[in-house]
Amino acid sequence: MTESQAESDMEVSAKTLGEMAARSTPLIRNHWYVAAWAEEISRTPLRREILEHDIVFYRTEDGLPVALQNRCPHRSFPLCRGSLQGDRIQCGYHGIEFNPDGSCAHVPQLKAAPGGLRIESYPLVEQGPFVWIWMGGAENVDHSKLVQQPWFTEPTWSHVKGYIYMRANYLGLHENLLDLSHFPYVHGAALGRPEHAEEQPTVRVEGNVVHSSVVHRNVAVAPKYMRATNLVQPVDRTSEQFVPSPAIHVGKAILEDASDPKKTHVRYIIHCPTPETLTTTHYFWAVARDQLVDDEEIDAESYAGASKAFNEDKEALEEIEALIARDRRAGFAERIIATDKGAVLMLRAFARMAEEES
User: Quick check: helix, strand or coil at residue 91?
Assistant: First the structure.
């Protein structure tokens, strides 16, 4: 790339920036977000803030997950500090009870349960390890927007998973995941070589769904997995990604070795950024494979490698968020380079989604 081309890549008009979602863009609600891992929701009330809504989760006696507004409409006491009475949740302040649909079931001080004493309930879908929540209002539920995850629900696949709380905006995480040129600098030799930063991804957009693909030659492979699968170096990795919504980022890593015939191994890496607020994020991640599905040592190695890398991303993104908050100089604007194409298209798609909702 010539110097003039590089400068051209960095020139972004005010109009272009205005078309991209940013930290000031309202949170996008009409999608399914991961609310919790399935095992987190139990007969003990769980509090979690999602898209600036304070929510309490629990399971009915039949095991169905429930999500309700975590705020008693009487005196705003948090319902997560109450207790379960059968399938109802009881406020710990005055004993008022609410059904799983949010309607009032019982008021100890009254002979009747007022119909107006109601709290918001949220649609949930449980799929394998994921519990998804619809944040756009029960009247707008769209099950077609729920991205299926067969790699985490079918018995021929095994997976590891984790959760990270990030004091950073969720859009930054999406950008990070689409731009793999940061690998050698943030994650070191475990994920990237210096020359990998020069590889230009192939990017396309279909409607509001962004697709990206890049090939990295001669990559490192986790030692136990390398030995167990008899892969032959050098190993190349094709990283394919698509972003169907603000709530999920689907990655596919295809490893191809140098044996004859070549051996090919596939892993799916799912990232689910669920905004807590505009500056904090619940980050759910999972990695699935269909080789060595019962190997606990490979599970441990996979979890350790993924957890290390994703926590390195967390550290970088939190440093960025903290600097943005404290450096208020006038006139500063981030610039764009060639490898940001996927992120730009994604942020434009998110801006369109937010505008449609408004």
Answer: coil
With a CB cutoff of 8 Å and minimum separation 6, the contacts of 136 are: 29, 30, 31, 142, 357
For the residues of 112-180, what is the DSSP string, one character each? Answer: S--TT----B--EEEETTEEEEE-S-GGG--GGGS---GGGTSTT-EEEEEEEEESS-HHHHHHHHH-G
User: What pLDDT does 17 receive?
Assistant: 54
Q: What angle do CA 358, 16, 31 make, to 5 degrees?
A: 35
Task: Please list, in sequence order, all residues whose beta carbon lies within 8 angstroms of the beta carbon of residue 4, skipping any fewer than 6 positions away.
Answer: none
Structural domains in the chain, CATH included, are 32-141 (2.102.10.10), 150-357 (3.90.380.10)
The string of pLDDT tens digits covering residues 191-209 is 777 788 788 899 999 999 9
Q: How far apart are CA 294 and CA 300, in angstroms?
A: 11
Q: What is the pLDDT of residue 200?
A: 87
Per-residue pLDDT reduced to its tens digit, 159-185: 999 999 999 999 999 999 998 888 889
Residue 239: Cβ within 10 Å count: 19
Contact, 49 vs 61, CB < 8 A? no
* N-to-C CA span, the chain: 40
- Angle (nearest 5°) at CA 40 between 39 and 43: 90
Rg (the chain; Cα; Å): 23
